[in-house]
UniProtKB/TrEMBL annotation:
Listed name of the protein: Dihydroxyacetone kinase subunit DhaK
Source organism: Jiella mangrovi
Keywords: Kinase, Transferase
Keyword Kinase: yes
Family annotation (Gene3D superfamilies): 3.40.50.1360, Dihydroxyacetone kinase, domain 1, Dihydroxyacetone kinase, domain 2, Winged helix-like DNA-binding domain superfamily/Winged helix DNA-binding domain
Length: 694
């Protein structure tokens, strides 16, 4: 078993060694061929001959690299996934969006802002890429200013820095003029500006200005740049562009921009990366998106959770071919797009199973992994024709055959596949009216969510219920915005029942797991009783606040595309609090008895469950995939004992497979603290494909 230890490359001074002679080290390996060789050897499982060919060096050089890597602890006998996660995210972004290269920074760094760290990394990339005679195009923004601040002084002959947008009349510290001036000064390069504002009063004025010989020559220089560096701005109302950009407030409020998701060098794009045409675009002076797309190196530098949607839009439109971002943002982008097969658990400290230098493969009853979701849905529709139907024009949108009644609040749920029966299994009378389905462990895109919304909208509004994951939040929010444009009122309640995923004072950051079962059940009942959207939302929030889950993992699962375990856990170990995508838990401990495990979980729940003696709860003992009913009932026996000793009554109990993580071994315990209102709604009749009550 081998590993790449990235920390070693940062802490140890490199010794003298030959450099690759034919092929440059990819940017993500920070100009360190040892790290590159270690990655190819440890992660990609290449032979030394294959590594030599990939790196453009001799086999003897590769042998020296591997020997030195072992000596310095870069390659050793354990593979720590947490140290590889940034590279795994970078590789997945490269493959998903056809990038030339990608650098992903660690998300946590004490004492330094993300903008500063992105700017410093952008400066290092720019220093490496620029050549004598280059012309470098620059847009504007805080990150661009940080790049200029961190770039090392250099003196390359015939180097120029070119402004690619018009200027700003605002007194902003990061206007186009200042960003270009600072970078040109740092590089000791010639500065080429644009002698016009970024936005003019009319399209006619723009046409006149663009015919001026001086401006035409400046734009000829901008179109001829070899490289362009730009930030990616969100178009959200709280984004910097609304406060200190070159655009007037009334321009940004124009109807044509309501579907804008991002801004690149002054040009607006929608969530698919397509140009947003409108009056503002016709008055904007700067390179067009098509002109930017012709530039060989298009380097985007952006990060932070508020920019996830914007970065995804830019990548979908192929507006950048080199990306610099942070791990949390990169992971969120991949989740929103449909997490690729390379990414199992990215943020843990687990080891990946390796046998004979290659990760062990698992067995599944599947055909083509690329079609597994469609084939699953086809089988599901044939098994449950009285409960479920697909929309013909949107097969990832599954609707209840019962259909929402006129005047009833529509309930839409959704999330990644691999958790069945959650989410699609809870579509039916008295529960959810529709479900949007994503790829394995990945959020559904906005389009099927919107189609579900339109299908169940019957005049009383639509309520979204789903787990608190970055990709889901982003895509459901986008769908809600699109629904609002069609005059459909949408409310959202995130489920946050996973006690282990964040401390109680940060409960809003917790994940939604098996507790979805109870929140879906009582909210679906409220809608079925024709309650208003205000009441349905109130009940959903109340149920979520009173629902608590903790799970324990005993063995990993494997994705259909990889047939490889997404983490490793020892034969005598268990992980308390692991998430349903393999996210790390709160502790890894020796495997205890069933009673010990149940007690550990319950103590964590009791610490937050405000249920004094005489209270009533409902219980869910849930398999995460492969833990059998025999073991679940043993666990339930202990749960019942502990609740009885606390003087807490159990109104109802469910034991079985209700929220899975593919074939993961393990289980979770969920308690919901009931009152009279929730008890009545929990008992309300429902009938769906995988659950029936009343």
């Amino acid at each position: 078993m081998v590993s790449v230890n990235t920390a070693a490359t940062r802490k140890t001074k490199p010794v003298a060694r030959p450099q690759p002679s034919l092929t440059q080290v990819p940017l993500r390996f920070r100009d360190d061929p040892l790290l590159w060789a270690g990655w190819l050897y440890a992660h990609d499982g290449m032979t030394q001959n294959q590594i030599a060919k990939a790196m453009g060096v001799s086999r003897a050089t590769v042998n020296n690299y591997i020997a030195e890597a072992r000596g310095r602890g870069i390659v050793n006998l354990t593979m720590e996934t947490s140290r590889l996660s940034e590279f795994m995210i970078a590789q997945a972004l490269i493959e998903r969006f056809d990038l030339s290269d990608c650098i992903v920074l660690p998300s946590v760094s004490e004492g330094r802002s993300l903008t500063e760290r992105l700017g410093e990394t952008g400066a290092r990339v720019l220093e490496r890429l620029i050549r004598p005679g280059d012309a470098v195009g620059v847009s504007w923004g805080r990150t661009l200013l940080e790049i200029a601040r961190h770039v090392a002084p250099t003196r390359l002959p015939d180097l120029s820095v070119v402004q690619v947008t018009g200027g700003s009349s605002l007194k902003s510290e990061f206007s186009p003029e200042i960003c270009v001036s600072r970078l040109a000064s740092a590089l000791t390069a010639r500065q080429v500006g644009i002698s016009a504002p970024a936005v003019v009063s009319s399209a006619a004025v723009r046409r006149v200005l663009m015919d001026e010989p001086l401006l035409r020559a400046q734009f000829d220089s901008a179109r001829a740049v070899d490289k362009i560096v730009f930030g990616i701005s969100s178009s959200r109302r709280d984004a910097t562009i609304h406060r200190s950009g070159p655009f007037a407030r009334e321009d940004l409020a124009h109807a044509s921009l309501q579907r804008a998701a991002a801004v690149i060098a002054g040009r607006f794009i929608d969530d698919r990366g397509r140009a947003v045409q409108g009056p503002l675009d016709e008055r904007t002076i700067g390179l067009t998106l098509k002109e930017i797309g012709r530039i060989k190196f298009r380097i985007a530098v952006a990060g932070g959770p508020e920019k996830t949607t914007a970065i995804l839009a830019a990548l979908r439109g192929r507006h950048a071919n080199v990306l610099i971002t942070d791990a949390d943002t990169g992971h969120a982008v991949l989740q929103a797009e449909g997490m690729p097969q390379e990414l199992g658990a990215l943020n843990g400290t687990r080891r990946t199973q390796v046998q004979g230098g290659n990760r062990m493969k698992t067995k599944k009853l599947i055909n083509d992994p690329a079609n597994i979701i469609e084939e699953m849905l086809e089988g599901m529709m044939k098994a449950h024709p009285k409960h479920l139907r697909q929309l013909e024009h949107s097969p990832r949108s599954v609707i209840s055959v019962e259909g929402p009644r006129e005047g009833k609040v529509g309930i839409v749920v959704g999330g990644g596949s691999g958790h069945e029966p959650t989410f699609v299994g809870y579509v039916g009378k008295g529960l959810a009216d529709a479900c949007a389905i994503g790829n394995v462990f990945a959020s559904p895109p906005p389009d099927p969510i919107l189609e579900c919304t339109k299908a169940v909208s019957k005049g009383a509004g639509v309520l979204y219920l789903y787990g608190n994951y970055a990709g889901d939040v982003m895509n459901f929010d986008m769908a809600a915005e699109m629904a609002a444009m069609e005059d459909i009122e949408v409310r959202t309640v995130l489920t946050t029942d996973d006690v282990a995923s964040a401390p109680i004072d940060q409960k809003e950051k917790r994940r939604g797991v098996a507790g979805n079962f109870f929140v879906f059940k009582v909210t679906g009942a409220a809608a079925d009783k024709m309650m208003s959207i205000d009441e349905c939302e109130r009940i959903a929030r109340k149920a979520n606040e009173r629902t608590f889950t903790v799970g324990v993992a005993l063995a990993p699962c494997s994705l259909p595309q990889t047939l490889r375990h997404n983490f490793e856990i020892g034969p005598g170990e268990m992980e308390i609090g692991m998430g349903i995508h393999g996210e790390p838990g709160v502790t890894r401990e020796p495997l205890g008895t069933a009673d010990d495990v149940a007690d550990d979980i319950l103590e964590r729940i009791f610490a937050e469950l405000d249920a004094p003696e005489g209270s009533t709860v409902a219980v869910l003992v849930n398999s995460l995939g492969s833990t059998p009913l025999m073991e679940l009932y043993v666990i339930n026996r202990r749960v019942a004992e502990r609740l009885e000793r606390k003087g807490i009554s159990v109104h109802a109990t469910w034991v079985g497979l209700y929220c899975s993580s593919l074939e993961m071994a393990g289980m979770s315990i969920t308690l919901i603290h009931l009152d009279d209102e929730l008890t009545e709604l929990l008992d309300h009749p429902c009938d769906c494909a995988m659950f029936r009550a009343g």
